[in-house]
Every structure is written in C-alpha cells, then in structure tokens.
Amino acid sequence: MSVLVLIEHDNQNVKGSSLNTITAAKKIDKSVHAIVLGENCSKVTDQISKCEGIEEVFIVDNNIYKNHIAENIAPVIVELASKYSHILAPSSTFGKNIMPRIAALLDVAQISDIISVESSDTFIRPIYAGNANLKLQSTDSKKIITVRTTNFAATKTDGGNAKITKIDKKKDVGLSKFVKNELNKSDRPELTAASIIISGGRGMESGKNFNLLEEIADKLKAAVGASRAAVDAGFVPNDYQVGQTGKVVAPELYIAVGISGAIQHLAGMKDSKIIVAINKDEDAPIFQVADYGIVGDLFKILPELSRELDKIKS
Amino acid sequence: MIMKILVPVKRVVDYNVKIKVKGDNSGVDLENTKMSMNPFDEIAVEEAVRLKEKKICDEIIAISIGSAKSEETLRTALAVGADKGILIETEEEVQPLEVAKILKEIIKKNNPDLVLMGKQAIDDDSNQTGQMLAALLCWPQGTFTSKLEINGKKINVTREIDGGLETLGMELPAIVTTDLRLNEPRYASLPNIMKAKQKPVEKMTPTDVNIEIKQRLKTLEVTEPSKKEAGIKVDSVQQLIYKLHEKEKVI
Fold first, then answer.
1. What is the CATH topology of the domain spanning B3-224?
2. pLDDT band at A192 (very low <50, low <70, confident <90, very high)
3. Could you say which of B95, B134, B228 has the minimum Cβ distance to residue A101?
4. Domain segments of chain B: what residues?
5. What is the pTM of this model?
6. d(CA A250, CA B225)
7. Domains, in order of start, for chain A
8. Which of A57, A58, A161, A164 is least enclosed, having the fewest CB within 10 Å?
9. Is B17 in CB contact (< 8 Å) with chain A?
C-alpha cells in the first residue's frame, strides 16, 4: 500500500515542512501520494506534482478548507485512508493539530515527531524534551505519523510529473469557524526555514536590545529567535521561541546570545550544524553544546561582530 | 450559562529534573525522581479556577490516570481550586488514544461543558490526547491556546501557530488545550493544601469504564541522544569570524 502525505501550505505556496515530510514518506515506501486541501490552491498542487518521487496528488479546493480547520480536514483524510498504510504530516502546529484527530477517527495510535524511519513499522522519536530517544514499533494496521522536519532533508522540487486528481468535497461539519489570524510579517526568513539563526536570551535585558541581533541578522540573512526566558520576560513575542515548547530548528549556523542553555532551549536547537555561544558566564551550559564560544559582554561583542561582518562582506 | 469544567492532569517527571536513561535501555529511570503535575496541565487548572472566580464556572473536576501516586497530582489540583477529583488507577502505561477513550467515558457520565487540558505532557511529548478526545466526542477543538474568551455558549480560542496567532470561534461543549502564554499558574497556599485533603476523590480502574489498555506502540529501546563534543572558546570576535568564514564556511 502507498503512503499519503498531508501537505502544509498557505494556498499560494507549499511550505518547506511538506518537502521534508515527503522525504520521510519515501523512506517508508516508494509509492508516495500527496493531498492538498485549501482554497484556490492549484499552484500548490502544481508545485507538489513536480516534486521528485510523487505518484499522485489529490486536490480538494473549497473555501471550507482555506484555513485548515482540523474538524473539516480530518473526515476527508479518513475517507481516503483505506488505500494507505501510512499517513504523514509535518510536526508543525498544522500537523500537530489535525493528525491526532485523524488517528482517533481511525482508531489507531499516532506516532508523533519521528526523527528516523527504521522500517515500515519501527520509528525513533524524541521523548523528555529530546533528552532520550524512543525506538518504537507500531502494532496498528495503519500508521498516522508526524515528522520532525529538521531530521529529514527537503525533497527535490523538480523532476517529478505526478498525476493530479481532483476530489469534490465540501462538507463543513460546522464545529469551528475561522475568525482571524495575526501573522507576524517580516522580511527575514522564517525560523524553521532559515539557514542561519541568531537568538537572544534573558541576557539581552530588554526587547529594545534585540535591535542588536536584528542588525546582524540582516547582514547574515538570518532569522531572529529567542529563548523561553526572553519570551517570558516579554522581550519578544512567543513565535520567536526556540525550544521544546517553541520551535525546533536545525540551521547551518545557530548563534546563541545571552542564553544560558536551559534543557528546554537546548532541545530546540542542539541539532544545528554549527553552534556559537556568546555569554558572560563561562560556566553557562550553552558552552557545552557550542562549537565556538566567546565569554564576554554581549553589548560589546555584538557591535564588534556587526562591524567585522561588514569587513568580510566588502 | 454556568459551566462545569473537566481538567485532566498528569503526574510527570518534574520540569527541572535531568532524566537518566536506564542502563538496559528499557526506559527512563524514574526511581527517586521528583514528580510534579505536567506544567501545561497546571495552566489548564489555573484557567479553570479563574473562570470559577469569575462565576462563569461552578464546578471543576480534575481527573488523573495512572498509579495510586497520581492522587498527589489530583490533590495539587484540588489545592489550587478544583472541587473534586477522579483517579483512574492503573499501573500500566496508558497511551494517548486509550487516555482519550477513558476521558470520553468519564465525560459521558459527568457532562462537562468544557474540557481544559495541557497541549502535551512533558514526558512522552505526544501532543495528541486533546485532539483525539475531541474527535471521539465529535466536539470542536481549540489547541495550543494562548487566550480564551467565553460569551455564553460561544467561545473564541486564540491559538499559537507557527508564524503568529489564529483565532477560532466554536460552541460549547469543546476541548481546549493550553499553551504557555494562556496564564501564569498560582501556587497553592498552605491552608488550601490542608483543605484539599478533605475534598472528595473518586477512585476507579480502566475496567470500571470498560476500556481495555492496549500497548499499540511497543517500546523497543530507549537511548540517550548522541552527545555533541564540546567545542572551543575563542578569544576575539575576529577569531570567531575567521572560524565561521574560512574554516566552517557558514557565513
């Protein structure tokens, strides 16, 4: 049986998280299908149909699905489920919200946040905020899975030529209605998609001081993140948060500034390729995971870093 | 409308404890480890108590599923302001789908208008039970909630989503799962901790509610994640830039 991937998108473009999820699906079975639910989302369907290794893409295009209401999407997936051995989605707030609803309707367990596919029924997932890894075997006939996207490379977005099939569904179960959203607009890359991230912690002392990080972020085309301590202190909004209860990231370069390195923060960034720590406390736990550390006053180091970056860029 | 609220609470390893994997890789060593209420559940209890203080709710039932020691977790909820507790006692590991099925049976008997629960437990980090329970009951779900507005039977749930916030409107009964910014939980006062000892806790087993515990996901092995080797400290920004630019080629 084939594997079905529930695609995350914004009705215009496929989200990167879906490309990582397709890679995980391909490790389970070579026959991978995808489904796009949304409104006026044919562009997304076209993008997915060109991804390497996708056999068939289903599109369900109706206003009811525009805002990805879990109560409306779940029944559509459940109806298709008999044809699939596995159904996957990214472990983003999109996938986390919808997939357990699908699993319960199918009377099977969900396997959350997998970081490795060992076989078609055996997977590894982090538990205890990433302080342990659990290898588990699913005994259910159907596997509902969310994928930790940072552990799978993005699939290639060309070379494919999947068949596109329209599904005519428009049942509003009428349980939840979209009221509004407030998405943070920024010219910088999204945290989960950035190849460089610079994050600030309580050591930044105020929200205003995040300007120092933003200045460097703009020079590096980096995203700006924060520790939970900085969010709790009100320096920056919660969607900046990197950590077990925030976003899990694994960029090429992660620069932690004024972050002590609580377990909960490390869980969200320790898989980054190169980690740099800037902290005045030389015993801060962040230095135990850092490839390069500087002990010192961040308010002196950051402006210097900014100036030095200008030199190498010129 | 005056609501009845159900709040499921889980006994987990305390937030600040660094856990150890057992030597035989069969699981995590919980012997002599400090246990507490799951932090997201504390937020759920707090929200319910605030609704009671606003006279929007007149009864809070806390429920826990686990070993006899989970009664301590229920007593914590009672000390903060829940009115009664239900303990579903079992020594077995209960996975999210079966937790949701047990909760469904309890809901059928107690008819709460709202279930407030943590978005995930910090032990298995599954983040499933609320959504599963909503599916089993055919109720609306407001997950990862940072703001809850109640207007009679209508509620607005503001959710923490990747990239910002989203508000959904739904009608009670509903499942609402809590995220960190919903509120800041209070500590129970000593007099309230004493009073909580007198509050009723009803004890049952999964069999009493006709739910069979299945290990749908079998643990094969629990291991420590590979440790990163500690790196080096550099003395100057110039040196750092050199390493990142010339050696690692990441900038």
1. Rossmann fold (3.40.50)
2. confident
3. B134
4. 3-224
5. 0.93
6. 15
7. 2-166 (3.40.50.620), 191-313 (3.40.50.1220)
8. A161
9. no
